[in-house]
Structures are given as C-alpha cells and as structure tokens.
Amino acid sequence: MAQSELDRLTQLLAKLPGLGPRSARRAVLYLLKRKDSVMLPLALALGDAAARVGPCVQCGNLDTRDPCAICSDPGRDGAILCVVEDVADLWALERIASFKGHYHVLGGILSALDGVRPDDLKIPELVSRVERERITEVILATNATVDGQTTAHYIADRLAGLDVKVSGLAHGVPVGGELDYLDDGTLTAALKDRRPV
Amino acid sequence: MAQSELDRLTQLLAKLPGLGPRSARRAVLYLLKRKDSVMLPLALALGDAAARVGPCVQCGNLDTRDPCAICSDPGRDGAILCVVEDVADLWALERIASFKGHYHVLGGILSALDGVRPDDLKIPELVSRVERERITEVILATNATVDGQTTAHYIADRLAGLDVKVSGLAHGVPVGGELDYLDDGTLTAALKDRRPV
Prior knowledge:
Two copies of one chain form a homodimer.
Chain A: H1 4-14, H2 21-33, H3 35-52, E1 54-55, E2 62-63, E3 77-84, H4 87-96, E4 101-105, H5 123-132, E5 137-140, H6 146-158, E6 165-168, H7 184-192
Parallel strand pairs in A: 3-4, 3-5, 5-6
Antiparallel strand pairs in A: 1-2
C-alpha cells in the first residue's frame, strides 16, 4: 500500500489531545476535501508558528514577540504579577480580560510523586523578579488542587521576607453552580468567606 | 495583541471534526511544546499530503498514486466492485482486509432533502464501468440508513438490465451485540436471515 503519507498524517494528528486514531482519520478526510481552504493554510500556520512562536524571556508566555505582547504592553501594570502553572492558565485568565498586570509562568507545579522540585520550575526566577522589579503584589493563581496549593504555599514562604503583598484566588461557589453538587471543601470555603450582600 | 499567528492556528485546528475552540487551544499548546517531534513533522505531512494526494480516476479513493494502490494492485480481483458512499467507508472496509476486489466511491448518497440527484454522484460512472469492464458482481455497501438504502435500490435498478450480480451487505446482530439493546428492524432482519449453525 502506498498509503504511507496518509498513514503518517493520521498518526501525527492522532497524537493531538482530544483526537484518537478514528477521529484523526475523519480529520484527514475532512482536510483532503478542503485542501485550499483548510489543509494548506493549516500547514502554513503550523510551520509559521513553529518558527516564530517561543517563550517570553520575562514571563514564559508563548508569543511571536519576545518580550511577549503582554509584557511589552505599556497599558498594563508591571507591579502586579499573576503566577500561573502553565501557559494554558495564562490564556484562560487573558480570555476574561479583567486582569491588567503581568504574568509569571511556572512551567509546572511542585510534585513529590513526579519528582518536581522548586528549581525545576521558574520559582527562583520569580523570587529574583520580585527582588529586582518594583512588584507590589503577587497573585498566586495555581490550580486549586493539592499540588497547586502546595506550590502556592511554598512560593508564599519564599516571598515572605520580601516587601510584597501575596494573595490567592478566592474559593467559593462557581457562578451558575448548584450547592447540592458542590464538594464539602468548596462549600466550607464559600461559607467561611461569605460576603455582605 | 500580537497573538494573531496563534489565534489563526487555533481557529484552523478548531475546524477539524472532533475539535472545538477549547481543545484546539490545548492542541496548540501541546504542539508548541513539541515543535520538532510533532509540530514541524505535522506541517510537512499536511503540505505533502495536500500536494500529492488526490482522487483515483478509476474508483475515487484518495491516494498519492493515480490509479490508486488498490486499483493498480495485480493481486486484487477487478471483477468484483464494492460500491461505497465515501472514502471513509472504503478505508473502513480496507481495515478488515478481507475484501480483495475493487471499489467505487459514490461521493455521497441520494437525498431529496439535500437535493442530491443521481448525476451529482458517481452513478453514471459506475454504470459505464459495469458496461465497459468485465464486472461480475457489484456489492452495494452504502450505509444502512434510509438514504443509503434508497441509493442502493436506485443503483440496483440502474444495473438491472446488465449481466451482473448485485448484492448488499448482510443485516443482523452486530458481533458482540446484545439482543436487548437492538432495534426492531435489525432483530427482524437477523431472525429472517437466520442461518444453520
């Protein structure tokens, strides 16, 4: 069979998160039927992004510019630093468009199980950034998982001696959420941090 | 924001069946972290396939060769023609590797609702293939949907005057299937076409 090109393309597409072998085959057929409108533009966009997109030297965001568009935006407040685990979290926060400070991407979280230690993450870089730049507040926006919270506590400890306010995201009932379906921890936090209406 | 390259890549990936905007973003991050192992090979494979893969002039299969690897394989029996709706169905049949004849891809099915008429499909080509080549049997392997069966009946009518055996796929209990979950039509067909054990 001379299907090798198609097999290879299918195998590569099947590696993407959310696609398996069967959906990759569907995607290949979809693409072959739309060569000019999707397939070739996608090939170009992939090559282009691979060549031009890289991590920002300051915050770790992925962008074609370095420093990235966020770090080099004069309209943003460089004194507030939001610490996230991954670029995906940074993008999630950017989508709500209500945070106007800078970011610091850790590139992972501390994990005893996976052997991830502080020096494997951008924690030393974060400490030196806080020491060097005029940072007034660090918002720890790691995930609300055990490892995420451990990482947040560790960073708070490391920043304890420095003249900087350290905060974390609020816990509580998700907007649109039903109490009956919430876990006990979230409900406890929501009750403890109750606010005047 | 200079995120345009990444936005464009995300939008293109989100068009693939099985991916939405959110999974496309995850895929973009996945790719950017694996530039050399996945992203660039995928860009090349896409460009390569777009340039080299096209429909087979004989059967309509998609391949880098024309006539395709199936049509030009001397080990296959060109006298038996399996008629399928789409290349995806051809690939599904090829995966079981038990059919050793040739194919004929219709490129769709008749549909009054969508305004698909016989001349919009490769039905005239099928008739002339049967007239021209030494075809002994045509297996109608359209889907077991209403439109698929209508198309099969229409083709059987068109081939009625010619000296060729026309057959269809067997209906029955899927292997591994439970009777309790089967629809009435399938169960009726399975009972009607019961076979000696």
